[in-house]
Each structure stands twice: as C-alpha cells, then as structure tokens.
Amino acid sequence: MTDNRTMYFECARRVVVKVGSNVLTAENDLNLAVIRSISRQICHLILTGIEVILVSSGAMASGIRKLDLPRRPDEIPKRQAVSAVGQAGLIMEYEKAFGRYDKKVAQVLLTSEDLSNRQRYLNARNTLYTLLAWQVVPIINENDTVMVEEIKFGDNDTLAAMITLLMDADLLINLTDIDGLYTKDPRQFADAELIPVISRIEKRIEKYASDIPGALGTGGMLSKIKAARKLSAVGIPMVIANGTKPDILKKLFNGRKLGTFFVPKKKKLSSRKGWIAFNLKPQGLLVIDNGAVDALLRNGKSLLPSGIMAVEGEFTVGAPVAFKSQGNRMIGIGLVNYSSSDIQKIKGRKSGQIKSCLGHKPFDEVIHRDNLTITVEMDD
Q1: Which of 194, 227, 244, 192 is nearest to 21 (CA)?
Q2: 108: which strand partners?
Q3: For residue 108, is pLDDT > 60?
Q4: Count of other CB atoms within 10 angstroms of residue 330
Q5: Which of 70, 80, 137, 175 is 20 to 30 A off residue 202, Cα-Cα?
Q6: Residue 121's pLDDT is what?
Q7: Given this model, what pLDDT does residue 246 score?
Q8: 308-312 sheet: strands from edge to edge
Q9: d(Cα 252, Cα 248) in Å, to the nearest integer?
Q10: Phi, psi for residue 29 in degrees, rounded to 5
Q11: DSSP secondary-structure letter at 25?
C-alpha cells in the first residue's frame, strides 16, 4: 500500500492536535515535561504558518493532584468536581508553557449540545476563528462540570474529530502513549505489528483496536478508530502517533512516516453536510425502498414520500432523522420537511398527492438533498 501522507502534511494549513490522558499524565499527576514539549512543538508549527487547535485531556489527573486524592472517584458528581478543579491547573500549566514562547492560550469548554445546535455551532466556530486570527492557541476540552449523558461527547477523540470538522481543518493528529495501531496490544505481546497505513476501516481494524484499551482516559484505541472513520468519510486524514516521543509533531511535518496514517476518501463533504452527519443525533428513522436508495446513492436525489415505506419514532419538522434500506442498511441522515405524523400519511405517495393527503404542500421532498448526508460508506 502506497503511503502518500507527505502530501497531506505539506498542504496542511490548519491542524487539530489531540493529546490524550496517557500522554499528559504520570502516576495520576500531570507530566509537565510533556506539556512543555507539546507546547514548544506547537509554537514551532505556528511559526511555520500553520494554525493549530489543541484538544487536551488531563483535567482529571490535574484535579486528583491538586486535591491530593488517592485515585479517581467513582461517583459522577465527584468526577465532575475533580475535573473542574483540575481544568484550572491544566490551563495554568499550558499558559506557562506557551508563555515561554510569547504565545497566549484560550480555554474553550464544550458539550455535544453546543455543536448539535446550528446557531451555537456557528458561534463556537466564529470564536475559534477569531482566536486563531489573534494568534491565540485554543485549548479545548469537554465541559465536564455540566456534562450529563445526553450532552456528552463520550471521549476527547470524538470531540477532536468534531472540532476538526467544525473548523474545516486539514488534518487531525491524535497523540497517544503508543506508536500507533497494532495488530495486538504491544504492551502485552512482543509479536504485535504496527499498521503504518489504513485506507479502509474494516472489521479487522476495529477488532485490533478493541483489544488495545486506554489506561486513564475514556477513549482507548477503538474511539480513535471511530474518530478516523468519521474524518475519512468527509475527506480529512488522521494520524495516530506517540506523543511521548521527542519532537513527534516536528518529525511528522518533516516527512517522517511515524504512527498510523488513515487515508481519507477523495470527496470532501461541505461543512454543513458534515455537521448534519456527525453532530446531530437522529430523532427518528425512515425505512426507504430500493428505488429511493438507488436515487440517493447514484443520482444525488432528494428523498421523496414515494420512496418511504415506514416511519419509526416521533419527531417534528426540521428534526434530524436517519434513513435505512429494507435490508436494514443505514443510508444516511437528514433534516425533514414534515413531521412524523404527516410522513405517516404521505409515505408511499407521489409528491403531487401530498396536498390532498394533508391539505397543504409546503415541499415536494421529505428531505431535500441539500439537507441530507449519505453515510453508508462508513457502515460498509
């Protein structure tokens, strides 16, 4: 397999760097040497004309240290409180580290709700654009203090992928404590082999990843593979590399083929379609016939009522709704022009019959092609 990652690194003008808990911590304490090293390397990249957004874990370890706790608490409220205490210490260390190179930093705390609401999504993007224009390094983490199950990203790998999409970044560099994705856990098996390039995320790749857990963070290798899957589908590459290795960022941009590189698909989605695909949680499901599947996949058409066979769930106009084939194959997600109750009435009918069924016809399409994203490649 040809490794053409050099082209992507040479062309990158805006990158997201995600640093995991296992890189930033040592025995439930912050690894200040690593923080200083990562900060120094990011400053070097900025001097070469590259915009860098940092997604950083480590708040929990920082809080455990400051509160002198023997270990991470089990209860969610206590974890949130520890993270709140630790976030201040984490940012302080970054501020000192970047300050050595006359760089300012900004703390940005987000929940998935901030990125699923279109207005808040755009507000977050505008703020980050402004920080970059001011030569300030955004340091992003999940807002653990207010986080509940419904609005959590789940792990910073997912958050980093969402930020990469949000900012139309050219590349995500995911730094962990091992050299990349292996066929087995290299910490346990001497015959484990590093996989340098992945052009398609198959089941065996997920199996390799599921066998390599993370020690401190909520992610582990499988969450990194899921992040790579999202980005690859929209045409953005990702690399998993060892953040504890000296000058890892500089080496990557100098052409060293380190870590595991995920080759993106050639066609890049628009920012809006990426937002629909990955930031919105479906509120319902439509089952569509084979003719509709073909029209969507081959011809880029809108979803019409005639192609809908069944409606699952209750939702209102404008809600994100997934759609799948008769064979249970997930095809995509889009914003509906009709409520679930209205779609029940017009499913299987031609667009010309909508008015006679409902008494009005604001749209011919149930989901317009501009408001839907095909995701089937990610499920193959």
Answers
A1: 244
A2: 140
A3: yes
A4: 15
A5: 175
A6: 84
A7: 93
A8: 308-312, 285-288, 320-324, 330-335, 372-374
A9: 6
A10: -140, 155
A11: B
Closest CA to 87 of 112, 69, 105, 66: 66
Please tell me the distance from the alpha carbon of residue 305 to that of residue 349, in angstroms, as a whole number: 6
Two tokens, residue 355: 């008015």
Q: What stretch of H or E contains 56?
A: strand 51-56
Angle at 142 between CA 318 and CA 96, to 5 degrees: 140
Closest C-alpha to 261, from 196, 179, 201, 357? 196
Measuring CA to CA, which residue among 182, 170, 176 is closest to residue 237? Answer: 170
Residue environment code for 13-52, b if the CB has 16+ CB neighbours within 10 A, otherwise e: eebbbbbbbbbbbeebebbeebbbbbbbbbbbbbeeebbb
| Tokens found for residue 109 | 């705390």
- The helix (run of H) or strand (run of E) holding residue 176 is strand 171-176
Check whether 278 has a pLDDT greater than 70.
yes
What would the pLDDT profile of 145-193 be if each residue is shown by its tens digit?
A: 665 444 345 578 889 998 998 898 999 999 998 898 888 877 788 888 8
Partners of 14 in beta bridges: 51
Q: In Å, how far are 39, 133, 135 from 51, measured between CA atoms?
A: 13, 9, 8
Query: Which residues is 142 bridged to in the sheet?
Result: 110
Question: Among candidates 26, 227, 16, 236, which has minimal Cα distance to 139?
Answer: 16
Segment among 23-37, 243-257, 361-375 with least mean pLDDT = 23-37
Q: How much is the pLDDT for 276?
A: 85
Helix (H) or strand (E) holding 227: helix 220-233
CB within 8 A of 149, min separation 6: which ones?
none
* DSSP classification of residue 261: E
Domains of the chain: 5-273 (3.40.1160.10), 282-379 (2.30.130.10)
Higher pLDDT, 4 or 259: 259
pLDDT of residue 89: 86
Closest CA relative to residue 320, chosen from 152, 118, 110: 118
pLDDT at 93: 93
Six-digit token string for 47: 């001097």
Q: Is the pLDDT reported for residue 220 higher than 80? A: no
pLDDT score of 378? 44
d(CA 120, CA 379): 29
